[in-house]
Design brief:
The chain has about 110 residues and is mostly beta strands. The chain has one domain: Fumarylacetoacetase-like, C-terminal domain (Fumarylacetoacetate hydrolase, domain 2, Alpha-Beta Complex). Helices cover about 10% and strands about 20% of the residues. The protein contains 1 helix and 4 strands. The chain has a 4-stranded antiparallel β-sheet with strand order 2-1-3-4, with no helix packed on it. A hairpin with a 3-residue loop joins strand 3 and strand 4. The relative contact order is 0.21.
């Protein structure tokens, strides 16, 4: 959660799908582009642990309630893992999606601390 918990990180939406709206959660293509270049292209079938196992493990040390969101990680292709590392810059256009659920678009802006 460290990389997804800061304010403005890990945008979600514009809706959340319920289990009955997803044919097979184990076969969803996940993708991300930065300025038109595909950086991540994966599938939920590549998860290291199956969702029931993840939920079982997490529920052993925290209470889960309806609507909770579990961030499972990210597919290969993140900028930090590239050589040399590639980080988002102000103005970068990010488009990401999960087939069958939709896509979203973001524009990176500089954040002064």
């Amino acid at each position: 959660m460290k990389g997804k918990s800061a304010d403005t990180f890990a945008p979600l939406g514009p809706f959340l799908a319920t289990a009955d709206e997803i044919r097979d959660y184990r076969k969803l293509k996940i993708w991300l582009q930065v300025n038109g270049e595909t950086m991540q292209d994966s599938n939920t079938s590549n998860l290291i642990f199956d969702l029931p196992d993840i939920i079982s493990t997490i529920s052993q040390y925290m209470t889960l309630t309806p609507g909770d969101i579990i961030c499972t990680g990210t597919p290969a292709g993140v900028g930090h893992g590239k050589n040399p590392p590639q980080y988002l810059k102000s103005g970068d256009h990010i488009i990401y999606g999960i087939d069958g659920l939709g896509e979203a678009s973001q524009r990176a802006i500089a954040w002064d601390s």
